[in-house]
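Q&A log
Question type: sequence-to-structure
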Amino acid sequence: MKHTVPHTLGKEKAQKVTRAAFDASVARFQDYGARCNWLSDDRAEVFFSAKGINLTAQVTVRENSIEVDMDVPFFFKPFRKVAMTRIDEEIHKWIGKAERGEVG
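Response status: OK
Response body:
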């Protein structure tokens, strides 16, 4: 399931904001085995485990967008819209922080 969130931060600032967001999320969701593995400056894999089901997402930071591609197991497909809405809200929250100068 792919989702794109536009931004006006530029790539470098968006990368800093995305890293800060992941650091905060990994700390907040430690009970769910949350972890983030940066593959390059602009690509990361994010992992969570819920009810014994592993969720993986690939995130790519671009000049004008942040792209999320999440592998959704069959049993979670009914909840994918809810999951993407939550991810979208979280990304927008961090973009707003960056725009206000609170991050990056």
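Response note: Helices lie at 11-28, 80-99.
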